Amino acid sequence: MILSGKAKLAGVLGWPVGHSRSPRLHGFWLEHYGIDGAYLPLPVRPERFKAAVRALADLGFRGANVTVPHKLAAHELADSLTGRAEAIGAVNTLVFEDGRIRGDNTDGIGFYENLRTAAPRWPPSDGPAVVLGAGGAARAVLVALRDAGVPEIRLLNRTRPTAERLAAELGGGIRALDWERRPEALAEACLLVNTTSLGMTGQPALELDLAALPREAAVCDLVYAPLTTPLLAAAEARGNPTVDGLGMLLHQAVPGFAAWFGVEPQVTPALRAFVLAPG
Ligand code: ATR
């Protein structure tokens, strides 16, 4: 890759950041669309985060993605927030424009675009959605489903008070239920989403009897290592449409790339294969 003096620059701020797939993902699009630009891994310690963001803006960067552990600090630092970043309470995308820093959160839209693409008959019914987990990822999913007009969302978390607080804060038909009641919660559901780390390589599997889940309900796992989690394998075996977590990662990157590099990129099978390949 040879850059001109006018190259457009962006990157991902995290600590650590070496595991991030974002440089590979944006690098694929930059090359594919023949853009004079670069997207860099930017390891930044938490205590240096704000100074680093200001330095990037001073250096003429177009913006940056923000990952663990900086998403809340980015929310505090932004001069303005998109409605979805405000609702989610965290920022994963910064856009530098006219000396100001705009904070966005594209995790929810990435989740929803991936769901619509991977489960073409979505929504299969007007039944409730079931969301497992009440952490940062769950917030993005809940806001996306609420804003898409899903009338009822059943939220189940190991620590129930966390789910209750989140349901009260976000409103819009979100109801907290007991974690132990997850088999019954699946009755009449149109969607099941796992936002916990259960099922991830090295973590325990998510134990869940899917018997009550309607066969047309989409089953989505935000975990993408492994790509086919035990939950997705069980759902596939009984004929439910499944949606894996890699798609969300790819779709959440679209708005940032479009804002920084001026091209609305496509999520394609070739991109998926490239991001999955080691390297
Ligand atoms: P993320 O940003 O990925 O959502 P997080 O904010 O740390 O990560 O949230 C992790 C979620 O996974 C939480 O809902 C957590 O439940 P608690 O609130 O009870 O901690 C859930 N989780 C993690 N390990 C779990 C386990 N072994 N069993 C059930 N839920 C688990």
Automatic annotation (TrEMBL):
CDD domains attached to this UniProt entry: NAD_bind_Shikimate_DH
Domain Shikimate dehydrogenase substrate binding N-terminal: 12-94
Molecular functions (GO terms): NADP binding; shikimate 3-dehydrogenase (NADP+) activity
Keyword Oxidoreductase listed: yes
UniProtKB keywords: Amino-acid biosynthesis, Aromatic amino acid biosynthesis, NADP, Oxidoreductase
Record's keyword annotation contains Oxidoreductase: yes
Residues binding NADP(+): G133, A134, G135, G136, A137, L222, G245
Pfam families the UniProt entry points to: Shikimate_DH, Shikimate_dh_N
Ranges where the Quinate/shikimate 5-dehydrogenase/glutamyl-tRNA reductase domain occurs: 129-197
EC number(s) given by UniProt: 1.1.1.25
InterPro entries: Aminoacid_DH-like_N_sf (IPR046346), NAD(P)-bd_dom_sf (IPR036291), Shikimate_DH (IPR011342), Shikimate_DH-bd_N (IPR013708), Shikimate_DH_fam (IPR022893), Shikm_DH/Glu-tRNA_Rdtase (IPR006151)
Record-annotated active site: K71
Catalyzed reaction equations: shikimate + NADP(+) = 3-dehydroshikimate + NADPH + H(+)
Pathway info: Metabolic intermediate biosynthesis; chorismate biosynthesis; chorismate from D-erythrose 4-phosphate and phosphoenolpyruvate: step 4/7
GO CC, alphabetical: cytosol
Gene Ontology biological process terms in this record: amino acid biosynthetic process; aromatic amino acid family biosynthetic process; chorismate biosynthetic process; shikimate metabolic process
Positions of shikimate binding: S20, R21, S22, T67, N92, D107, Y224, Q252
Family to which this protein belongs: Belongs to the shikimate dehydrogenase family.
Oligomer status and interactors: Homodimer.
Role noted for this protein: Involved in the biosynthesis of the chorismate, which leads to the biosynthesis of aromatic amino acids. Catalyzes the reversible NADPH linked reduction of 3-dehydroshikimate (DHSA) to yield shikimate (SA).
Name under which the protein is recorded: Shikimate dehydrogenase (NADP(+))
Organism listed in the record: Tistlia consotensis USBA 355
Higher taxonomy: Bacteria, Pseudomonadati, Pseudomonadota, Alphaproteobacteria, Rhodospirillales
